[in-house]
From TrEMBL:
Main location: cytoplasm
Keyword Phosphoprotein recorded: no
Positions with a binding annotation for Mn(2+) 2: K263, D268, D286, E347
Biological process, per Gene Ontology: proteolysis
EC top class, as a word: hydrolase
The protein's Enzyme Commission number: 3.4.11.1, 3.4.11.10
Domain Cytosol aminopeptidase, chain residue ranges per copy: 343-350
Gene: pepA
Gene Ontology terms, MF aspect: manganese ion binding; metalloaminopeptidase activity
Protein name: Probable cytosol aminopeptidase
Protein purpose: Presumably involved in the processing and regular turnover of intracellular proteins. Catalyzes the removal of unsubstituted N-terminal amino acids from various peptides.
Entry annotation: catalytic residues: K275, R349
């Protein structure tokens, strides 16, 4: 059954039916516009109900008044915005998710005139985006579906706003972002028997419908290019590796592109250095970096971003086959540098080494950002609240930090210096792929830095944020689609013509 849920925007006016959603601060008073619309009896009703239910208007709290006296609606839902500090720091997407969790799949009207809080058309668009992201679920493999689950039976959500035309224009750009996040979530959630390297590459190929140029490199092409590090990981699987190159040319013809690179290990057993069995099923998500890049390219192309963008993803499966690489093997990368394999479970950096070199060599980008579920060590440092940020460029790092605060996809800069580079020196090759437990995220980043060739670069270790991440108001599933909103915001703020 198709989802018939619909979002609309209309001017402020009297609400006659369905649910009515309004907002109050800790003083329990709605804005003057809402108070006038509700009338004094309804405002008094809110105060009385709040006293009875110990509702204090704290941020993210809510109460429902069924068949409210003096109003012709079914329910009056009152959502708290908290005190002055809370109201000055509202995450509008999260607020949209909170709203989505309160509606029941029928008609609901949200009056977006908040007490002592400015709500711009962009803010309304972000609220609507949060609603849609909250409603996501991955149930395509369930044979017994309940359409009423998670409000999937449809319904209509109306936002009552000051300027509906301006809001519709702003929301149009969010639709592509929403779809991009959903694409990333779907890719990460797919079972590994369905989504191998070739199938993943085919999903990237689908972006051609939006005007993205897509090129797929197979084993033969990668061997010709000398991608020995990536192919070394892929050789243990009967499913050959792939590299997908996606290009969106929305900027000026002579402008250098910006580049995003994703780790796409579709399943990671650890190879010969095999992982423990407990929880190994989660290793289907070891391609979340690549999923983000595909979702980002969809978002940018959908809104016709005025930038030249390259997205590149290295797709492999890391298996312990009789042909798999061994600890002690030495591989030669596309750059000509050699890597001694210490641990075959440190495979993501091998994939990225070749793809990063390929991108900087072929496209000469303004900058490169890679995303990878690279190390468990980053979760020891940052839990699942921040992605680890490593960079050779302060401006790029600062811009990512600001974009992270704006979108809620937060990053924290981690150290990257010559001490970590020294730790990956090898007795037998130019470097080794693992330096042990201490500083594991920084030594992994140090290896990657050897393949960026002085291009401004940032590495985002998203092992804690992209899969199995803590649920919040806009993500109730396993895969978060982390990074799509962050990087779209980065491009929008700084890199469009």
């Amino acid at each position: 059954m198709a989802d018939s849920f619909k979002i609309d925007f209309q001017a402020h006016g009297k609400v006659e039916s369905g649910d009515l959603i309004v907002f109050v601060g800790e003083n329990l008073k709605p804005s003057a516009t809402v108070a006038k619309q509700l009338g004094p009896k309804a405002v008094d009703l809110i105060a009385k109900a709040a006293a009875a239910e110990s509702f204090k208007g704290k941020a993210k709290s809510a109460m429902s008044i069924v068949v409210p006296t003096g109003l012709s609606v079914d329910r009056l839902i009152v959502i708290g915005l908290g005190g002055e500090k809370d109201r000055s720091d509202v995450d509008f997407a999260q607020l949209g998710g909170l709203i989505a969790g309160k509606v029941n799949g029928k008609l609901a009207t949200v009056v977006l005139d908040l007490p002592e809080t400015e709500v711009t058309p962009d803010a309304v668009a972000d609220i609507a985006l949060g609603v849609q992201l909250r409603r996501y679920s991955f149930d395509r493999y369930k044979t017994k579906k309940k359409d009423e689950d998670n409000g999937k039976s449809g319904g209509r959500l109306v936002f009552s706003v000051a300027d509906p035309a301006a809001v519709r224009k702003a929301y149009k750009t969010r639709e592509g972002i929403q779809q991009g996040v959903i694409i990333a979530r779907d890719l990460v959630n797919e079972p590994p028997n369905v989504l191998g390297p070739q199938e993943f590459a085919a999903r990237a190929q689908a972006l051609t419908k939006l005007g993205v140029e897509v090129e797929i490199l197979d084993d033969k092409a990668m061997k010709k290019l000398g991608m020995g590090a990536l192919l070394g990981v892929a050789q243990g699987s009967v499913r050959g590796g792939r590299v997908a190159i996606m290009r969106w040319n929305g900027g000026k013809a002579n402008d250098k592109p910006i580049a995003f690179v994703g780790k796409g290990v579709v399943f990671d057993t650890g190879g010969i250095s095999i992982k423990p069995g407990a929880g190994m099923e989660d290793m289907k998500g070891d391609m979340a970096g690549a999923a983000c890049v595909v979702g980002l390219m969809h978002a940018l192309a959908s809104r016709k971003a005025k930038a030249n963008v390259v997205g590149a993803i290295g797709l492999v499966e890391n298996m312990p086959d009789g042909n798999a690489q061994r600890p002690g093997d030495i591989v030669t990368t596309m750059s000509g540098q050699t890597i001694e394999i210490i641990n075959t479970d440190a495979e993501g950096r091998l994939v990225l080494a070749d793809v990063l070199w390929y991108v900087q060599d072929r496209f000469k980008p303004k900058f490169m950002i890679d995303l990878a579920t690279l190390t468990g060590a980053i979760m020891v440092a940052l839990a699942q609240e921040y992605a680890g940020l490593f960079s050779n460029n302060d401006e790029l790092a600062d811009r990512l930090t600001v974009a992270g605060k704006a979108t809620g996809e937060r990053v924290w800069r981690m150290p990257l210096g010559p001490e970590f580079d020294k730790m990956i020196e090898s007795k037998f090759a130019d470097m080794k792929n693992s330096a042990g437990r201490f500083g594991g995220s920084s030594t992994a980043a140090a290896l990657l830095q050897r393949f960026v060739n002085d291009v401004p670069w940032a590495h985002l270790d998203i092992a804690g944020t992209a899969m199995g991440s803590p649920q919040n108001e806009i993500n109730k599933g396993w895969a978060s689609g982390w990074g799509v909103r962050l990087l779209d915001r980065l491009v929008r703020d700084h890199y469009e013509a």
